[in-house]
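Input chain follows. Return structure tokens only.
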Amino acid sequence: MKLKFIVSDQTNPYWNIAVENYLLSLPETEVVTLYLWKNRRTVVIGQNQNPFSECNVEALEADGGYLMRRRTGGGAVYHDDGNINFSFVVPKALYDQTRQFRVIQRAVADFGIVAELSGRNDILTEGRKFSGNAFSKGKYQDLHHGTLLIKGNMEDLQRYLKPKPAKLQKHGVASVRSRVVNLSELNAEITSDSIIPHLRSAFESEYSEKSEYSEFSEIIKRPEVRALYEEFASDEWRYGRWRTFTAQRTAQFDWGGVELSLTVDQERNIITDVQIASDALDLAALDEARTILTGASTATPSQHEPNPILDDILALVYE
């Protein structure tokens, strides 16, 4: 068994995740890799998450931040360069989450911080989360990665991860918010730079081997990495089908049945197109419902004169 240690010199998240996925694609059978990287002002969402439900996309991009979608599951997290991310890329025969978690626990213990595991995904200290983790399986190797909250901007975290107040949203995987803590609050000596040698030392101690250092700047010159960078940076991967979607609503009322098909633009939080199928006799009420809903906010309905049919249709959309 050999150990490989890599530290990114980029804060652009698309380069960092491209390298991670490149490493995962390699047909290694004897090399265990620990890869460390930092992202600047980035919201990272899981593979199956709706970015507009998880992230204030407009504020993030206005501030020059990045939205990044990973290939693993789990919830949305916020990265900035006050924190550090780690990736264990391990051949299947050597993959051991207990050992991998133990590397993190050993490293923070050097700063007097006692870490414990919570469930399958989180690392806590004093009951508060400082690391969320996610996992993925490759052809030859498996991936275990996570973030260490060290000195992140909590105000930005709340600003960017706070969902917009839209009641009508496409179903996706929603994040569960947890109590979090910056490790620097517990020990001022721990920073996103000072922890790096401790992570390397813990890595070597856990596996009883010396690690070989690989230059990040050489890895990103490879065409396979460039192709991955372009994929992860693309709007198609980050937003894709989530920019607009069609919501279907069906119900039966005393006055008749109704089927709604609503096209929603999540970037602007408005309903852009409305189709209504119904056996109701009050055609004027159906026409009024189309008029009110087309161009309406997804958060609140427009004011209207009381009408039982119209009230039921709007309730079907907004409640």
